[in-house]
Amino acid sequence: MSGGGGGGTTSNLRPKFVPKTPPCMNTCPNHVDIRGFITSISLAEKKGKSYDEAYTEAFYRIAETNVIPATIGRVCPHPCETACNRINVDESVSINKLERTVGDFAIEKGLPLKKLTDEKRQEKIAIIGAGPAGLTCAYHLARRGYNVTIFEAFPKAGGMLRYGIPAYRLPRNILDAEIKRIQDLGVEIRCNTAIGREISYDDLKNEYNAVFVGIGAHKGLNLNVSGEEAPNVYTGAEFLHKINSGESIDLGNKVIVIGGGDTAIDAARVAKRLGADTTILYRRTIKEMPAIDEEIEEAQKEGITMEFLAAPIEVLKNGNMAKAIKCIRMELKEADGSGRPRPVPIEGSEFITDATTIISAISQEPDFSGLEQFKHGRDWTKIDFKGETEFAGTYAGGDVIELSTVTVANSHGRKAADAVDHHFRSQTFEPEEKRFPPIISHEKMRLDFYEKLPRIPIKSLPVDERFGDLEKEVNSTYSHEEALAESKRCMSCGMCFNCEKCWMYCQVNAVVKTADLDHPFAFKLELCDGCKKCAEECPCGYIEMY
Ligand SMILES: Cc1cc2nc3c(=O)[nH]c(=O)nc-3n(C[C@H](O)[C@H](O)[C@H](O)COP(=O)(O)OP(=O)(O)OC[C@H]3O[C@@H](n4cnc5c(N)ncnc54)[C@H](O)[C@@H]3O)c2cc1C
Ligand code: SF4
Ligand code: SF4
């Protein structure tokens, strides 16, 4: 058939609104409803919502998955942004900074977390470790009505968020506020209580109906070179733990940090703030450094020297104190098991660098003392698709499975909570990804609809104002105007954002406006002649013809 209202080809096909999964949400390990929370802000005016209403809605959308958005909004390496469809127009949406803005709003307004039900479950759940994995698991169980107690070995909750990540990246008032909100929901946190030492795992199992193991990986790895037992040689985890616990350390004026991950960068930036001339020694090149790119850039801006393709072979001492490090130059050969090029020593290339303090930040591992049953030889704790260990009723997640990120720890904690809940309700658990609608690719969208708009940068402290104080936060939160402008860059991939294109292009009035602000259009299929114009013009790929 041809002709018809749109002037194009008519057909027997009829349009349907089909929500899709945006790639940002699919890629976020914790599957935060990114499109949902950003459009809560960007569409607020169209929906007649105030600033407060929009941010409150955005917060509760995030809190469906991520209970610590102000924290995550400061530290997440944001893989979601790498997948953002907007990259095909100009640059990705600044998702992480928007998440932080909403998180800060929630703290400022004292927004409480909400329970999903008034039901009070009889089952008691024990959580070992108050890091992001344990805290998240606790929240998702408490909101479903369970009795939750977290046992934490350290004096305060937060795990690596408190004892690893420095305060200039994550201010402690922000972390404290987000933890308190979880406690206010009814979660009890018992600090200074190490499971496997103060209380045995068996006793815990007997008293509680389910257990979640989220003990992280706090033991710094040694270099395995002679001389490293000197008291001025620290592991990165040990050094940051001491500093973040308020201890002062006399570093001297020349610090060498070994490693290329987040711990190495954080240790180096802390040492620099404490006044030491600081060098990072890494055995590969900057390209292979596993640390977050922005952190590497900031470290360089702060004047931290980076010596690549070099590895330590001996700590040289004066008496019992380290005074220098002997290194060897490396060259890169074909990839190893990690997929990165393999560093190989170059014979005869040894050199010596003086040091007043040496920090070995090469990696961490879990401390399984008293919990040895969760260690598998050289491997760490194993879990199945539900997050359950081989011990029925005991779940695990976070760094104790594999060193990863805060959002991965959150996702493990959330999944385990979901699995525990399904278990006690005798329901079959299936991974949430199975329920996601198809992912919308930029190729299925009308990218020409979207105007090029520069990404709104965040403000950061000038470098010369950063030193001498470990608490001074480097990056700032978007203002409301900045957040609003950035939110409008989101293309609402796969979901209506009320652009009216379908309604404007339909010449037979088969698209009508509704009073429902969340679903502003409907089809009058009896008027439709199948010209497909609505589907062709919809910028976000929400309409399909069937
Ligand atoms: C220096 C550093 C910087 C980092 N920077 C980033 C970053 O910028 N972005 C990012 O996403 N990730 C970062 N990470 C990684 C991130 O911090 C971890 O992936 C995350 O904290 C893991 O969470 P978790 O809950 O599994 O473990 P943790 O945060 O390690 O928490 C585990 C908790 O369990 C407690 N515990 C241990 N044993 C016991 C026991 N027997 N009984 C009771 N409690 C116990 C510990 O005291 C701790 O509080 C960084 C890590 C480090 C070390
Ligand atoms: S948690 Fe990380 S990956 Fe997920 S939306 Fe936030 S910034 Fe993106
Ligand atoms: S444009 Fe918006 S919805 Fe689309 S991928 Fe990026 S953040 Fe997600």
Automatic annotation (TrEMBL):
Domain 4Fe-4S ferredoxin-type: 519-546
Signal peptide range: none
Coiled coil (residue ranges): none
Natural source organism: Candidatus Schekmanbacteria bacterium RBG_13_48_7
Pfam families from the UniProt entry: Fer4_20 (PF14691), Pyr_redox_2 (PF07992)
Top-level taxon of origin: Bacteria
UniProt keyword Iron-sulfur, yes or no: yes
UniProt keyword Iron-sulfur, yes or no: yes
InterPro entries reported in the protein's UniProt record: 4Fe4S_Fe-S-bd, 4Fe4S_Fe_S_CS, DPD_II, FAD/NAD-bd_sf, FAD/NAD-binding_dom, Helical_ferredxn
Keywords (A to Z) from UniProt: Iron, Iron-sulfur, Metal-binding
GO MF terms, alphabetically ordered: iron-sulfur cluster binding; metal ion binding; oxidoreductase activity
Protein name stated in the entry: 4Fe-4S ferredoxin-type domain-containing protein
Classification of source organism: Bacteria, Candidatus Schekmaniibacteriota
